[in-house]
Amino acid sequence: MNATATNQYNITVEPAGPARVKVSIAVPVETIDSKLTSAVGMLKQQVQLPGFRKGKIPQHILEKRFGDSIRQEARNELIAEAWNQAREEHDLKPLGDPEPVGDPAELTLESGKPLEFAVEVEVMPTFELPEFDAIELQKPIVEVTDEHIEEEVVRQTIRHGNLEDVEGGAEEGDSLIGPASVILNDGDETFFKTEQTRISVPASDGSGQVLGVHIEDLGKLVTGAKVGDEIVITTTGPEEHELEEVRGSKVEITFNVVQSVRVKPLTNEELYKLFGLENEDALKEQLKLALELRRDQDQASVLRKQAVDKVSALVEMELPEKTTAMQAERDLQRMRTELQSSGKLSLDEVEAEVAKARSGSTEQSKERLKNFFILAKLAEHFHVTVGEHEVNARIAEIAMQNGMRPEEMRSRLAEQGQLPQIQIVVKEDKAADQLVAACTVKEVPLEEWQASQGIEGAPTPKKTKKKSSKKTASKKKTKKKTTKKSTKKSTEKS
Q: In Å, how far are 136, 208, 413, 474 from 460, measured between CA atoms?
């Protein structure tokens, strides 16, 4: 970029790295002298000194008494004005505060002498959007069937069911609760310990997680476990773990079952009464509408993602390094907050999950950041605006999903500082919807769409079986101590 001369400042902007520029600014002598004179004049009207009437203090006395502060304040004002001019003239879209080149303390302002300084800042990447009408999207056709509705009925009976203590062995879907400790490499000291963790029992041949560590044969290890059992799980620490001591180490997790709980599903009659409906037919009709709404939302989400992904594949962009690193940390912090808010994992388990995700966070964050810049440019291209009613509608939707009143959800989001993020999400969705409308959309059977996505087989509703009290007879290759049973505690519904 070429230098731009104005009556006030001489500004030069040049590349300084990926999506980063260096802004060099020269302040002419006449601009400095004018600013100093103005600063002294304002001070003369504000300051009172013994022996002088207000506004009548000689300039040389003011300069002697307040010279340093005058020059410092004038310097700061000149820098701020110059930066604002640079942004406007060169259409800079900074991603953060400008960083001074050199030591700012060395910048001195003196009458009759010019002032030169430079800053660097990361900016929105520059790129061109592709032609939209050449982009073809596939919209999967999904019909809500009676089978889907029946499955949803069963799911809701379980979701709203009551927790009961399990007297016998644990089955698939049960939860085991108790303290856990970890030892590394057969050591004598406990690496870390938690007083309460929860293990969700998978299918007897399934896998699962304990303290954020994936256990391939977890189902075989915990199926049939009961209160009083001690389960010892041995595995190898994942290489992507945040803690170096864990990576590749032998990890021995000792878990003591203090409580075993199971969901007792509601009956269909109990469920429709819970929903305030007259009969089972009314329940099914309401669930059908909910499934169709979810289907429509899923289709919209699929189309948005397709459209943005296809635009992203056509766009070349240099990503700012510092912003990318900050985005990776924000993503991990968001993940940490969401896991903590769910209440399903202990603090140790949350940190283990975050550590597991850290290795791939940078690449994922690069993709998200690229999409963010694309959506921002799309919003500008389509002149997208967001009204307060749209933000309120989105908050109400989130509240409904979490079983809360909209005003309660708004208060929670405000406390977490998430309200601005809601507006951004709404704006991005509107921009993506505009993009979808500008592309060519083709409706295809679900199987065809799945094939295009590399997904094998069409999703068929699974018959969710309600829990019986029948015990399993599976044998476990675990160490157990059953001589003493711990006192069972009541557990709130999760």
A: 27, 23, 36, 28
Residue 136 burial class via C-beta count within 10 angstroms: exposed 0-12, middle 13-18, buried 19 and up: exposed
Residues 236 and 274 in one domain: no
Beta strands, E only, 123-174: 136-141, 162-165
Q: Which pLDDT score is estimated for 245?
A: 81
User: What separation in angstroms does the CA of 246 have from each of 160, 212, 252?
Assistant: 39, 12, 11
Claim to verify: residue 148 and residue 69 sit in the same structural domain: no
pLDDT grade for 233, boundaries at 50, 70 and 90: very high
Encode 378-409: b = buried (16+ Cβ within 10 Å), e = exposed.
bbeebebebeeebbeebbbebbeeeebeeeeb
Name the residue range of residue 237's domain.
Answer: 162-264
- Is 492 part of a structural domain of the chain? no
177 inside domain = yes
202: CATH: 3.10.50.30
Are 222 and 278 members of one domain? no
**Beta-carbon count within 10 A of 49 CB:** 12
Same domain, 367 and 391: yes
| pLDDT: which is higher, 404 or 179 | 179
Are the CB atoms for 242 and 336 separated by under 8 Å? no
Dihedral sign for Cα atoms in the order 427, 431, 434, 440: negative
H or E element in which residue 262 lies: strand 259-264
Of the three residues 245, 264, 283, the one that is the final residue of a domain is 264
- CB neighbours of 125 closer than 8 A, spacing ≥ 6? 18, 19, 317, 318, 319, 320, 373
pLDDT of residue 491: 33
Q: Give dist(CA 234, CA 479) in Å, integer.
A: 11
CATH number at residue 147: 1.10.3120.10
- Residue 176, judged by CB atoms within 10 A of its CB (0-12, 13-18, 19+), counts as buried
Total structural domains in the chain?
3
Kindly give, in sequence order, each residue whose CB lies less than 8 Å from that of residue 147, ignoring residues fewer than 6 positions away: 461
Q: Whole-model pTM? A: 0.65
Encoded tokens for 171:
């089955």
Same domain, yes or no, for 433 and 310? yes
Across the chain, how many H-helices and E-strands are there?
A: 13, 15
Q: Which amino acid belongs to residue 469?
A: S
List the structure tokens of 197: 């963790």
426 residue type, one letter: V
Q: Residue 223 corresponds to which amino acid?
A: T
- Domain closes at, from 235, 264, 293: 264
Same-domain pairing of 300 and 383: yes
Is 426 within the bounds of a domain? yes
Q: Enter the tokens of residue 240.
A: 């992507």
Residue 463 lies in a domain: no
Which tens digit of pLDDT belongs to each residue from 297-355? 899 999 999 999 999 999 999 999 888 888 788 777 777 777 766 666 667 777 777 77
